[in-house]
Amino acid sequence: MNNSGKVISRQNSWRILNINIKMKYPDIFKNRTAMLITKHKKDKVIFPVLAQTGMNLKLLDTIDTDTFGTFTRDIDRKGTQLEAARYKALKAIEETGESIAIASEGSFGAHPTIFFVPANVEVVLLIDTLNDIEILGWEISTDTNHSHSEVSSVKEAIKFAKLCGFPSHGMVVRPNTAGDNSSMLFKGITTEKILKEAVKKSIAASPDGKALIETDMRAVYNPKRMKVIEKATINLFNKIKSLCPECGWLGFEITEWINGLPCENCFFPTRGLSKHIYQCKKCNHKREIEYPDNQKYSEARFCDFCNP
Fold it and tell me: What is the CATH number of the domain that holds 97?
């Protein structure tokens, strides 16, 4: 979101770029096999988008991707969000012998710029070892149900769960304090019957007599998150289509966001977005795109000089 109060569209910036060149590296993905590593049915939203590249998309669901980290904190994630996605993709290449792999990874926490708002950040990574390519699609969304609550009764648990979109969105339940039952964990709860049983067992096992209930953030149990993964995949596809105007290589993408949009009243620079800087990963060619949000001035109410 920029200082004019409008959401910045990266898709709009690519339309402004409007590079019309003859591709020097045509159809590098066409008819090649690409492996998607997931056991949480992400193929439902990733495959329809990336099918437009001409790749033969195949699912690799025989590897337990939970070993790379879980949202329930019983297994720590390996490295950063991007590193975890890279580990997955390289594992798929290692296991199958194919040269293209796709992996996704999500994270949840405070929005990077709107600090008091919870956000879901999703990345979808494509690695092509034959052409030495790594292209990353991403999306940040505030439309998430990521939450938890300490409850003392089944009634409280059901109320919380329904506020989070249950039963279409799954729940996770465990004892609120570990005690001797630190391994007790109920995941993927999508029926009221199982939810009641899990809460009762967790309350009984917890030294403080409470259960900890939280949203199950695995994509297969969280439709809200699945939609964000789809948007991140669209972002990846747009980067694949974005070609360097100098060498024609794909993945010509935004590497810098420059603020300084002038105020409509005093013309002093504001924190509003004024430029996108694109850079090619192959030849390092750069290009500036002014006013990517189709705005040449920021509203005066967002100016630190007019409204100190």
Answer: 3.90.950
Domain of 93 in residue numbering reads as 10-143+221-302
Asked if residue 2 is part of any domain, the answer here is no
Would you call the peptide bond into 167 cis, given omega within 30 degrees of 0 as the criterion? yes
Q: How much is the pLDDT for 7?
A: 36
What would the pLDDT profile of 125-146 be if each residue is shown by its tens digit?
Answer: 999 999 999 999 999 999 999 9
Residues 211 and 225 in one domain: no
Looking at per-residue pLDDT, the higher value among 183 and 7 belongs to 183
